[in-house]
Specification:
mainly beta, 10 strands, 49% strand
Length: 123
């Protein structure tokens, strides 16, 4: 297959990416008063590395991604319009600073949201 002139091909990560929480995207109707995990914990003693994040909302809101228990902002806030979606694909390594922690998110208001995160673990 030939690619169009000027096109860039992205072969994805070289890692075995895991998705969501137990393989399922996280959904919520109201995630503004408490954080929710959108990944499983990394391999014991390792840190989570974020490969991709997909977000879809039905209400205008911001979404902020944080490290479990430390509350350190990993990404965001991202401001989304009602009935919109976005994809975040970091080109640098987006690694949580603390071992054995999940990625969590919180929104600025109530509304339906779907978050699906692709990630892997490393030292």
């Amino acid at each position: 297959m030939t690619k169009p002139s000027g096109a860039i091909q992205d072969a994805g990560t070289a890692f075995k990416t895991v998705w969501g929480v137990s393989g399922v995207p996280k959904t919520s109707a109201d995630q503004h008063s408490a954080v929710a995990s959108c990944t499983d914990a990394p391999v014991s003693g390792q840190k989570l590395v974020i490969d991709d994040i997909f977000v879809s909302v039905d209400t205008a809101m911001s979404v902020t991604f944080k490290c479990e228990t430390t509350g350190t902002v990993v990404a965001g806030p991202f401001y989304l319009a009602a009935n919109s979606s976005m994809q975040i694909t970091p080109r640098g390594k987006k690694k949580l600073a603390t071992a054995d922690k999940k990625l969590q998110f919180i929104t600025s208001g109530a509304g339906n949201i779907m978050v699906d995160v692709g990630y892997h673990s490393e030292l």
